């Protein structure tokens, strides 16, 4: 019984704010490598998205505004997707997305997605995670119309840097 309880608790994992953000390395659509561990000292904003996700598509213009709003403020914006370059490139030509696009990001998704009692992945799209300058998860959310609260989380972390 103890073993079964431990397994159920383990399989219902959920990243908690304040916990260390899972580190990953990935390659952008432009071919640049990204190592989250090496970005300590910066605020990192992750969005998990898909070209087929209607909510993701509707959020892109609002997310693009963040790249201008935080320009020069040591904030890194990454858009991670399971899809490959062949699928993403035509989409991006019609729907510009100013985040650094990270295709083939299954490894990162496996680290950030929740798991249900059966161990199945459970992640709503788009999903948003903000990592503070120390590498801890500061904010997480998913679904439609989360850009206001996402912006507030980024603002708070940018303001904290100024106060230091």
Query: Which term fits the overall shape?
Result: globular
Mind describing the biggest β-sheet? Answer: 5 strands, mixed
Contiguous helical run count: 5
Instruction: Tell me the strand percentage band.
Output: 15-25%
Give the low-confidence spans.
1-12
N-to-C span: 50 Å
Q: How are helices and strands ordered from N to C?
A: HEEEHEHEHEEEEH
- What is the CA-atom radius of gyration, in angstroms? 16 Å
Class from helix and strand fractions:
alpha/beta
The total of beta strands comes to 9
Description of the structure:
The chain is of the alpha/beta class and 164 residues long. The chain has 5 helices and 9 strands. The protein has helices at 2-11, 54-69, 85-94, 106-112, 147-163, and strands at residues 25-27, 33-35, 43-48, 75-80, 100-102, 114-115, 121-122, 127-131, 137-142. The strands form 3 sheets. It has a 5-stranded mixed sheet, covered by helices on one side. A two-stranded antiparallel sheet has the order 1-2. Strand 8 and strand 9 form a beta hairpin. The longest helix is centred in the last third of the chain and has 17 residues, at 147-163. The N and C termini lie far apart (50 Å).
Helices and strands in order:
Blueprint: H1 2-11, E1 25-27, E2 33-35, E3 43-48, H2 54-69, E4 75-80, H3 85-94, E5 100-102, H4 106-112, E6 114-115, E7 121-122, E8 127-131, E9 137-142, H5 147-163
Parallel strand pairs: 3-4, 4-5
Antiparallel strand pairs: 1-2, 3-8, 6-7, 8-9
């Amino acid at each position: 019984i103890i073993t079964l309880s431990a397994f159920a608790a383990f399989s219902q994992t959920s990243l908690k704010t304040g916990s260390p953000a899972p580190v990953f390395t990935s390659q952008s659509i432009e071919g640049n490598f990204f190592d989250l561990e090496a970005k300590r000292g910066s605020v990192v904003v992750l969005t998990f998205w898909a070209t087929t996700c209607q909510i993701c598509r509707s959020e892109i213009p609002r997310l693009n505004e963040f790249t201008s709003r935080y320009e020069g403020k040591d904030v890194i914006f990454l858009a991670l997707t399971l899809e490959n370059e062949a699928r993403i490139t035509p989409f991006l030509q019609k729907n510009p997305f100013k985040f650094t696009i990270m295709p083939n990001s299954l490894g990162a998704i496996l680290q950030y997605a929740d798991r249900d009692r059966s161990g199945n992945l459970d992640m709503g799209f788009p999903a948003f995670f903000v990592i503070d300058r120390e590498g801890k998860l500061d904010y997480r959310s998913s679904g439609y119309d989360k850009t206001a609260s996402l912006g507030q989380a980024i603002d708070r972390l940018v303001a904290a840097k100024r106060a230091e």
